[in-house]
Amino acid sequence: FLDALDFTEVETPMMQPIPGGATARPFVTHHNALDATLYLRIAPELYLKRLLVGGFERVYEVGRVFRNEGLSTRHNPEFTMLELYQAYATYRDLMALTENLLRGAAQAITGGTLIEYQGQQFDLGAKFAAITVEAALDRANPELKGRVRDRAALSTTCFAHGIDVRPASGPGKLQYELFEKTVETTLLAPTFVTQYPAEVSPLARCNAADRHVTDRFELFVGGRELANGFSE
Predict the structure, then answer these.
(1) Is residue 196 a contact partner of residue 133, using CB atoms and an 8 Å limit?
(2) With contact defined as beta carbons under 8 Å apart, do 215 and 205 qualify?
């Protein structure tokens, strides 16, 4: 699918001198010959961006990444990820690409667009839904109506859901924590969630009309995050 769109597949280093590309905690290792501390990559992002700057306008990599933190049915310390970059594209372009990629994969593998997962059917043939983080929070937490950026109101709602509210957490961080707790598992049909808070979206481009949010999306199917992307 990506080759047909003139993307170039590449391989980038899995041991890196700087743990960059995401906010996860890295695994640390040591290179004896160089006597240097290295980190297993938490994402291939920084090296893919070097290629972008170097003139490769469309690149992707399928490879292993490592994150030294949570372990659950939703998180594994090592997993395989597809990461891609396209020069001059916006997050809206990447949303369309992601939707077409998944729909095409379903058709190629199953012959149709209906897929079944854990006893539920999902239609990848229909137009994917879209909602902003704040609209989703309003819908799931009606007591916040009109106060979705109010730190005091967010703190009260977070406490009610057993979320740890730290002094350093601003409204954006609390929005994100509350979204994970009250919204994620309810997003069953394919749904793009957009306009994530800038506070929890490092490297993403701030929205031109609203600096509190970014031009970022995540895709959810069956209550699970499948993709994350943004303009820069």
Answers:
(1) yes
(2) yes
Q: pTM for the complete prediction?
A: 0.92
CB of 111 closer than 8 Å to CB of 124: no
State whether residue 33 is helix, strand or coil.
coil
pLDDT at residue 23 greater than cutoff 80? no
Q: For the chain, first and last CA: distance in Å?
A: 23
Structural tokens at position 61: 């990599």
pLDDT of residue 74: 79
Q: What is the DSSP string of 116-143?
A: EETTEEEESSSPPEEEEHHHHHHHH-GG
**Model confidence at 145: pLDDT above 90:** no
Q: Quick one: the chain helix, strand, coil %, rounded to 5? A: 30, 30, 40
Within 10 A of 113 (CB to CB), how many other CB atoms are there? 16
DSSP 183-206: TGGG--S-EEEE--BGGG-TTPPB
- DSSP state, residue 150: -
* Chain segment 172-211, per-residue pLDDT in tens: 999 999 999 999 999 999 999 999 999 999 889 999 999 9
